[in-house]
Amino acid sequence: MNMPTVSKLFIYPVKSLDPVEITEAEIGIHSLKHDRAFAFMGEDGRYVNSKRTGKINQLKASYDLENGLIHLSLRGQEEQQTFELRTDNKILVEYLQDFFDLKLHIVQSTKGELQDVPYQSSATIVSTATYKSLLEDFPEHTVEDFRLRFRANIEIEGVEAFWEEQLIHSPGKGIRFTLGGVNMIGMSPRDRCNVPPRNPLTGETDKTFIKKMMASRKKSLPTDSRLPAFGDFYHLCVDTYLPPSEAKKTIRIGDPIRIGNTIELPKFS
């Protein structure tokens, strides 16, 4: 088998909106730089995300991160509006409130606090082979569709399906590994929510998705899989931790992954 290497990198500048595919990613604080740096939050203190409403999937976003801009449009429509991406941009807030018909504000963090699992999941890893394995039971989908549904940061190649789960051990224990020159810790498999069943372009929910995915995972489970220790089969991708010491280092396409030793997982407050 070839050495596992990074084949794709994605960041999601705004939580639940479209990704940016990049060739190298700078490590920030407990996250990749610019990843989930912004989010929309309702007056009730809950995120306005795809867990809450499928309407957010209908909003198309692209970015000029160097100049701090976001371009928004409705999917299928050419008309696009450009805004400065900042928390105090009242024009952007008004646009979003009109779209969602909901009072909200924009929040920002450069310390990984807007990740789905703050600190304990700095970045998620999956293999292309894993997506292709799922396609055997979801022939109507594509690898690109799964990328948009599962929203992983780091995609790897040169491995068999579900190889990335060798980066986890058992509840309470993790595995050190290096990705290029970056030290990381495999924490746990990602427990999925109601986002993957949503069509990433329309927000419509496939009520059969979860049951089909669990059956697919159970059927294709490697004999040495560590997944059963974590409960059910509705898991995909691996949560990884980036220690503060790795800030400002860089992950690049083609970087190899080397597995290290098993450790007791760090405690988080």
Keywords:
269 residues, alpha+beta, 2 domains, nine-stranded mixed sheet, three-stranded antiparallel sheet, 4 helices
Description:
The chain is an alpha+beta fold and 269 residues long. Helix content is 14%, strand content 32%. It has helices at residues 90-100, 128-135, 143-150, 209-219, and strands at 5-11, 20-22, 24-26, 38-42, 59-64, 69-74, 81-84, 104-108, 123-127, 154-157, 168-170, 173-179, 182-191, 235-241, 250-252, 257-264. The strands form four sheets. Strands 1, 2, 9, 10, 11, 12, 13, 14 and 16 form a nine-stranded mixed β-sheet that branches. Strands 5-6-7 form a three-stranded antiparallel β-sheet, with no helix packed on it. The longest helix has 11 residues, at 90-100. 33% of the residues are buried.
Main structural class: alpha+beta
Shape: globular
End-to-end separation in angstroms reads 40 Å
Look at the structure and give the mean pLDDT: 96
Strand content: 25-35%
Topology:
Layout: E1 5-11, E2 20-22, E3 24-26, E4 38-42, E5 59-64, E6 69-74, E7 81-84, H1 90-100, E8 104-108, E9 123-127, H2 128-135, H3 143-150, E10 154-157, E11 168-170, E12 173-179, E13 182-191, H4 209-219, E14 235-241, E15 250-252, E16 257-264
Parallel strand pairs: 9-10
Antiparallel strand pairs: 1-2, 1-10, 3-15, 4-8, 5-6, 6-7, 9-14, 11-12, 12-13, 12-16, 13-14
